[in-house]
Amino acid sequence: VQLQASGGGLVQAGGSLELSCATSGRTFSGCPVGWFRQAPGKEREFVAAIDWRGVSTSYSDSVKGRFTISRDNAKNTVYLQMSSVKPEDTAVYFCALRLSGNYYYTRAIDYEYWGQGTLVTVSS
What we know:
Elements: E1 2-6, E2 9-12, E3 17-24, E4 33-38, E5 45-50, E6 57-59, E7 67-72, E8 77-82, E9 91-97, E10 113-114, E11 118-123
Parallel strand pairs: 2-11
Antiparallel strand pairs: 1-3, 3-8, 4-5, 4-9, 5-6, 7-8, 9-10, 9-11
């Protein structure tokens, strides 16, 4: 399973950006997906997660109300819509997938496959 995260770039504070995570090698259907991020000098942290149906979601407190995770299983793609971004959102964003499960998962250890990451830089 290969995950490809894309959509990162430079954005001004208060702006918006949409990240995508696509898979090759298997379908997304049946697979919970999460987004994590790692800022320079910091540990990787949970951002958002979605169950395989796209019904249930979870967000970290730092992004709740600003970011939205969604998925299109027909396109094998999961999205992270980022709005009202802040300089502290600057990080490499990773998508992660686990092959089974009926819920969303918020711990990195719960995921089996990881994308390569996409850099988001928010300027003040």
